[in-house]
Design brief:
This protein is an all-alpha fold. It has nine helices and no strands. It has two domains: about 1-50, Homeodomain-like (Arc Repressor Mutant, subunit A); about 50-205, Orthogonal Bundle (Tetracycline Repressor, domain 2). The protein has helices at about 1-25, 30-35, 40-45, 50-75, 80-90, 95-105, 110-140, 150-160, 170-190. It starts with a helix and ends in a 16-residue tail after the last helix.
């Protein structure tokens, strides 16, 4: 019975995932989900209290996958510190056509709540992972700061806000300038040697 319940729950999530991509979160009704899955309303509410509850479960599924990959990379001490930082951030970039569509629809106005929740997960989930790598860098003499977590929190929040196409509109030239400033100030914030974090530029596809 537990297995069947878990399969039904995942089936609901799979259908909701497709519908949210196609119609947006606000544009999808619980009736849409019911009809697509072919279940009674009581069955849906047995697994989820509301449409927002379904969205939260979907976001948890995305974040568990992404953060799991990031944690695995962070734990690989054979990768140099700065390269590992870049790899952790790049691992958070979803790939594939369906994932690309998912990220595009999250940025639509009707999905603002989903966007906000995912930003919160990125800030709260990625920051401690990166802070652990920074601590290693401090021990290796690459960085010099008494505030590894706070520094990464500042950098993650800035990057997640300014480099989000929804929040700040930039030309390619403006974006390139901000990336250079981000790296320059990041090095100063972390007490790193000038130019030692230029590999970070890979994060921005430049």
């Amino acid at each position: 019975m537990r297995k069947e319940a878990e399969e039904r729950r995942n089936e609901i999530l799979d259908v909701a995932d497709v519908l949210f991509v196609q119609k947006g979160f606000d544009g999808t009704s619980t009736n849409d989900i019911l009809e697509k899955v072919g279940i009674a309303r009581g069955t849906l509410y047995y697994h989820f209290k509301s449409k927002e509850d379904i969205m939260d479960a979907l976001i948890d599924r995305y974040s568990n996958c992404l953060l799991g990959a990031a944690q695995e990379i962070a734990a690989n001490k054979s990768i140099p510190v700065v390269e590992r930082m870049v790899s952790v951030v790049l691992s958070m970039n979803v790939s594939g056509e369906s994932s690309k569509e998912m990220m595009e629809h999250i940025h639509k106005p009707q999905n603002a709540l989903m966007h906000q929740k995912i930003q919160k997960i990125i800030i709260n989930g990625v920051t401690p992972i990166l802070a652990g790598i920074i601590q290693e860098g401090i021990e290796q003499g690459l960085f010099n700061t008494p505030y590894p977590y706070e520094c990464m929190e500042m950098l993650v929040i800035y990057a997640n806000s300014v480099f989000d196409d929804d929040l700040v509109k930039m030309t390619n030239e403006e974006r390139a300038s901000r990336v250079q400033a981000f790296i320059f100030n990041g090095e100063r914030l972390l007490g790193a040697k000038r130019g030692s974090m230029m590999n970070v530029i890979q994060m921005f596809g430049i």
